[in-house]
Amino acid sequence: MAGNKMLFQTVLNTLQRFNRLSNIRTYSTSKETVSPAIAKRNELFSEEQRRQKAAVGRVEKIEVRYLGLPEDVTLAMNAHISTPYNCAQHLSDGHCKRSALALKDGNVPWDMHRPLTESCTLQLLNFTVADPHLINKAFWRTCSFMLGAALENSFTDEAHLQLHSFPGPNIKSGSFVYDIVLQAQSWQPTKAEMRALSAAMIRLAAKDLKIERLDVNNELALEMFADSRYKREQLPSIAQQNQGRVTLYRMGTHIDISRGPMVASSRFLGKCTVAAAHKIANEGDKDALYRVQGVGLPAGFTLDHVSYGTLEERARKLNSARLPNEPFEEQHQQIA
Amino acid sequence: MNQADVSKLMSQLRIAVKPHRNLRNPDGPEGRLLKLRKTVTALVKHERIELYYNRADEARGYAELLISNAIRYGDRHKATMELADYWLLEKQLVHKLFKVLVPRLENCNFSYTRMYKAPRDYPGMYYRKSVLELRGNPYPSLLPDYTNNRNLIHNVLLDEARKDYRREKLAELADKIASESAVNAEKVGSEGDAKEAENVEKA
Amino acid sequence: MSRNIYQSLNSFLNRLERFIFFGHRGQPPLELALVGMPSVGLNAPNKSDRFSLKNLLGDGILWAVPKHRRTIEKRLNRKFGLPGYNWKPLVAKTNLRSCNQCGHDHELGVLCPHCYKKVEQETRLMQEKIEQKLGLEPIEHEVVVLYQGEQLEKNENGSNDRKVRVVEMEKPRPVWFSKNLMQKTTAQPADTKEVKPSNLG
After folding, report:
1. Do B119 and C110 touch (CB under 8 A)?
2. Whole domain around residue C35: which residue ranges?
3. CA distance to A127, B58, B146, per residue, from B149 (Å)
4. Which keywords describe this protein according to UniProt (chain A) (predicted)?
């Protein structure tokens, strides 16, 4: 009995110390309410989504030729309304659950929840297809995106976390990356903190959150990210590359800028570890830029702990992707 | 002799002989055994057979035992030969056991046979069906093979990790060679000066 | 005998009686309207004054009837069975998955019927060929199955004297039956545990 009490006390102390040091939330102090800035961002997102749906007007029919198992079929869908997910719903429950990405006309990767615009052929991809190159890339990008959401959920307000951006997905580098700015110039993450971040990722995956895509114009994007200094700085150059449009993704309440495509849901993330956080540079006299890295596998992929340990070990090394404070080499690499 | 070698002294069956199953037969226990002998014979002959689950499950143990003993004792062992003579009803298969199956399976670290649950028609009969096969048979595989796709995400990650590791090792090796040669150069440095001086004189 | 005479006399009297009472009203006899029914019910009101078991039963037989009420629990158990023991209504199967190769549904842990059928047919053809070729000879070599247009692979020395039984199938290799999967590796198993960097660059 006394032993239990002592153990409990130790755990409590550790947790308190841990909270004080790093400002990372643990289970008990998990954020329930969203900040007003994020609530407003979500509201704008939903409103724009509604507006775009209403702007479709007269519903036009398109023919979608589905190629794949169990047989090729032609589906009559609605232009600008029906998504590949809706096509999968016509096929079977298994197709809906398993398909993570669609392939339009045989070469264009297309989000599962992005409306189709014209008659096309459609293939539904999962992680075990013969050539999983495109879907792997989309998965890696989604991992970075989810890491951003996990970081946002995990840090307390005292940490003054600001999401910067993430570089394009490169699986061969061995880790997915998110660059953040923290108001601490010498944060040395402990093992427990990294584990808490990994748990936040797993919790996101367990929630099975739908990942939505929306193209908005630059002005609206600026309004949405009014509170985020770094995102606001990036927006003009991104919009300039893309005829004044910016592609946004939303998962739960987390909204981020990304070129896409991403997988259909957060459910597709299976095993995941946030491996390391490296300090890159000081920002001003208080803040510093950190690069958070992790490694993950799609749900349903099993790997023994020795092999996975090697992957984790490798993910701890600093990822050599372009750093956010480096000058632009290629304009396209800024945001994945 | 290390531990791995010691374990080889003992006959260790991967698939044990199963407890007696109720394979009912009008001829009594002899008929039941004849049924099992027929099954083992057919397995060695055809290398892949489809049959009811109970019969396959029990016959599998005897087939494993037979192959295991054949590998352990070879064809000069009387008891093993008698065992083969008992289980194989067609005598040309005794040759196959010692000359084909033993070389094929002697380095096999896992079971010599595989058993799958076979599909049955719905609702069909109550009894479950199964497919029993010897490893290394020439027939098409019953399971899809995912191991060959190098592009699956974990394979890509592991490949890159291996390359990274090798690169590191090579760099270490190069460093080591460089440091060794540097030490050698220092050692021979003093002797070398004298030799060089001689060479210059000769030239 | 005398009983028969009594019965026929009795029925005659009955008919006569009925004819006297109803016949003159010009209605058809009721038996024609209700063929096969015991006439007891119709006659009963008229003969209510004297009780007779025979009148009650007529030509029918009195079957056994329930003596006691069956409780609702028993009735429900009879109707639906017991959950977990003998549940009679249909239950949804959750152990079904669709095959990644062909898209057909199959039970979890059981081979996919569609893919298995394909493999089974090919296996059967191969087994027939092998058995034909074999005859009654003692089997001393591995069997190698060659499809149309395939040649026996040379062994490590480059010579062609591998001791195998060659069985030829008179048809091209099916596309789904990859030859690559059946190949054995020639690489020797490692005898050291040290990993050396090799094949670099």
Report:
1. yes
2. 2-57
3. 11, 36, 6
4. Ribonucleoprotein, Ribosomal protein
The CATH code for residues A56-126 is 3.10.20.30
How far apart (Å, rounded) are the C-alpha atoms in residues B39 and B56?
8
B156 touches chain A (CB under 8 A): yes
The verdict on a CB contact (< 8 Å) between C103 and A128 is no
B50 touching C (Cβ < 8 Å): yes
Q: Which residues in chain B have their CB less than 8 angstroms from residue C126's CB? A: 138-139
Which residues on chain C are in Cβ contact (under 8 Å) with B142?
A: 111, 116, 119
C-beta separation of B57 from B115 below 8 A: yes
pLDDT tens column, B62-80? 999 999 999 999 999 999 9
Where is pLDDT greater, at C4 or B176?
Answer: B176
Chain A and chain C share a number of CB contacts under 8 A equal to 14
Residue B171 has pLDDT above 50, yes or no: yes
Enter the pTM of the model. 0.70
CATH of domain A134-320: 3.30.980.10
B144 touches chain C (CB under 8 A): yes
Is C173 inside any structural domain?
A: no
Number of H helices, E strands in chain C: 6, 6
List the alpha helices (DSSP H) in chain C.
2-22, 30-33, 40-43, 53-57, 72-80, 113-134
C164 contacts C141 by C-beta, under 8 angstroms: yes
Residue C197 lies in a domain: no
- The rounded Cα B164 to chain-centroid distance in angstroms is 30
A307 → chain B, closest CA residue: B158
How far apart are the C-alpha atoms of A45 and B85, rounded to whole Å? 79
Q: Is residue C42 part of a domain?
A: yes
Chain C residues with CB-CB distance to A70 below 8 A: 98, 102-104
Domain ranges of chain A: 56-126, 134-320
CB-based contact, B108 to chain C, within 8 Å: no
- List CB contacts (< 8 A) between C103 and chain A: 68-71
B27-53: per-residue pLDDT in tens? 988 999 999 999 999 999 999 999 999
Chain A residues touching residue B151 (CB < 8 angstroms) = 131-133, 136
* The total number of structural domains that make up chain C: 1
Residue pair C121/C109 in contact by the 8 Å Cβ criterion: no
The tens digit of pLDDT for each residue in C153-196 reads: 776 666 666 688 888 888 888 888 876 544 444 444 555 555 55
